[in-house]
Every structure is written in C-alpha cells, then in structure tokens.
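We modelled the chain as a single entity of 120 amino acids. Its sequence is:
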Amino acid sequence: TAFLVVHLDELPENVKETGLFEKIKNFVHVHRNSFLLLCAPFNGKREMDILTDIQQRFFGSNLRVLPVRNNGDIIKGMLTISKVTSKPHVDSIRDRLSLARAHIIERSPVWEMLRDVKLE
C-alpha cells in the first residue's frame, strides 16, 4: 500500500504544466495498491475540475483517489486504509464477521423454527 499526498493549493493555475499527471502515472506504475490523497477544500470549480481530470485519466487503474480537506483527514485516511488492508486485520475482520453470522443464525427465531420443522 502506497500513498501520494498532493496539496492542490500549492499547484500553479495550469496543473497540466506541473507534471502532476506524469508523477501520478509513475506512482501507479510502481505501486500495486496506490492511493492518491488530494488535499483541498473542494469548494471551488478548480478543485473539482482537477479531481475529475485525475479520475478520468486513471479510470480503470489501481489508483484510488481520496479527497481530503486538511492534514487531520490525511492522517485518518492513511491510518484507516493501512489498518484495513493489513493482512492480520483483514483476517480478524473476516473471523469476527464469521462469528457474528454464526451467532445470528444460532439465536434467530427463524432458524429455530426451521430446525424444529426439519426435526419433525
């Protein structure tokens, strides 16, 4: 899992001349599981246009774009993604879901009724 953080307010008006798209392309090519965190308020037309351009250019690639508003959101997003995509945590989530499913089936009155019908 790899992260690329881009602060849109630090880019000049003409984003295409900055080499941003080439940098993102190289990033996606190198990393199999890549996340682009775009930091901007996303209130203006410029930010939305840049986001749309990136999504259209890299549609179908392994790049996931996460719009964030501030540094706190960047950290939260990176921690959440890292936690969820790490192998031990994924296994833990799968085990907990399996236990919850078993518990629901065990305690469900519908399943009890079906068991009773099956026994008769």
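As a brief sanity check on the tokenised model: The chain has five helices and three strands. The beta strands are 2-7, 34-39, 63-68.
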